Amino acid sequence: MATGFAFDVTKPMKTGYLWKMGGVHKSFKQRFFVLYKGFLVYYEDNSKWKFDTTIGDTLGRRNGAIKLKGASCMLARSQDLPKSCKYPFVLQCPDPVNPRNSYILDSTSEGERDAWMEAIREAAPASSPPRVE
Description:
β1 (14-21) and β2 (28-36) form a beta hairpin. This protein has helices at residues 46-55, 110-123; strands spanning 14-21, 28-36, 39-43, 64-67, 72-75, 87-92, 102-107. The longest helix is centred in the C-terminal third of the chain and has 14 residues, at 110-123. The protein has a seven-stranded antiparallel beta sheet, sandwiched between helices. By secondary structure, it is an alpha+beta fold.
């Protein structure tokens, strides 16, 4: 198990390529995403993830990691996006430490988009524990 994270990097819930809109430059780049309980990690390509898992690194070659606590997914409004976006969705993550709390992702099919949205919803812990009265 990787030491900096509370999950086994060799056992993701879902993996695959998606297109991600940049935070500064609003262009889309294809990234390899790896979904774990509570985190969505992305790499330039899957070879960097495979290398990290082979050496047991703490995801040192990743491009980024998105904390999913309290996250939600919804369909993106396509009129606000480039025509190249075919199946976009928005991932919103309320993280007080990270000023960027919204990510626009795009997939190659409706089925793939729906599968990612469902998997992210399953992986996202609630923002606060439910109240017991």
